[in-house]
Amino acid sequence: MASLSQQGDDSDDGMDDFMDKFKKEKYSNAFSEKNWEEEFDKVPMFMKTAPDEIDPMKHPELAAIQSIIHDDDRPLEEQAESLKDEGNDYFKEKNYKKAIVSYTAGLKKNCSDSNVNAILLTNRAAAHFHLGNMRSALNDSVAAKKFKPDHLKALIRGASCCMELKKYTDALLWCEEGLKLQPTDKKLLELRATADKHKRAAERDARKEKVKEKKELSEREALLVAIKVSKIIVTQDASDSDDDNRGPSRDMAGLDLDGLCSVEATGATVFLDDQGVMHWPVLFLYPEHQQTDFISAFSESSSFLDHLTLMFGEELPPWDTNRKYSPQNLQLFFEDHEKESLYQVNPETPLIKILQHKRCFVKAGSLTTKYWNLFVSFPFHCQQHNML
Q1: How far apart are CA 345 and CA 324, in angstroms?
Q2: Which of 102, 114, 257, 363 is placed for a possible disulfide with 369 were both Cys, Cβ 3.0 to 4.6 Å?
Q3: Which domains are seen in the chain, by residue range?
Q4: What is the pTM assigned to this prediction?
């Protein structure tokens, strides 16, 4: 049997052999100048960002730490705190979605610590805020305040959410509640001043809009009366009209003035001027050349010749290569859609006289008829009908 001294000598000899081998062979997993940053990033303490999915085989240390964080055997308060810290780490990395997941998991622990729950909700509100989920952020701020009414960060977050949602009155209430706790808080003072400014501007704009709507309503009512008094037939559909039933009350029933304006780029609409004179959008069609002219405000008292003299005066349109379209040579017609016939218009006739003709129907509430149409043609290109 070997003596104790011999056993010690054997142990020492073994260590000497190990040390000699260690000096000769480098450690295979040692850090090098090239990969030391990469290796450091694998150590939980030095990690800049956590991996999306933690593989226990690749990151055993991180998996161990995570298991501690999520250890269900610990008190609920500790578990909630750990999840809060996890969420804060994600928040610092601006990974707000993962931060929300961690904060939510902490809230699901239903711990009895009101302060922890208030912080979890306030932090989740901040994450929602940065993602643009303002209503969710506001809801979390309200919930946080219920857990801890004097939680200043929750009050600031609630005021900020209301500002983003343009709820300026509510924002002021949040600010006032916070300033009772901390009268000199700079953020709350700034939010209150901004909220008050926007609230006053919104109220001013609302008053202006109300006045504008009232004025537009008054103008529409006056226009309806003018159309009724003038006995102009306005229908939803030209087929609704007939010679025996021309009563203005029928024509005014369900009248939609929006149908009398252009929904195209011009935006032209029939209107009354300050003297009570109606002005109509009128489209001139030139079928022979497939051309048009548009007058956005044709006064009811003006004659067609007034406009034709301007349109075909000294400077003729480029498409009239034969120079045939002169005011003296032109014929004008309006179309009766129901009878599919044309009625000739005397160019010296005022517009109101044509609009009052029993076969002239102005459509309203129809997106297919934007203007009242006139057909203009050189004499021998169009069959003559009743002269007006």
Answers
A1: 19
A2: 363
A3: 70-200 (1.25.40.10), 248-381 (3.10.20.90)
A4: 0.53
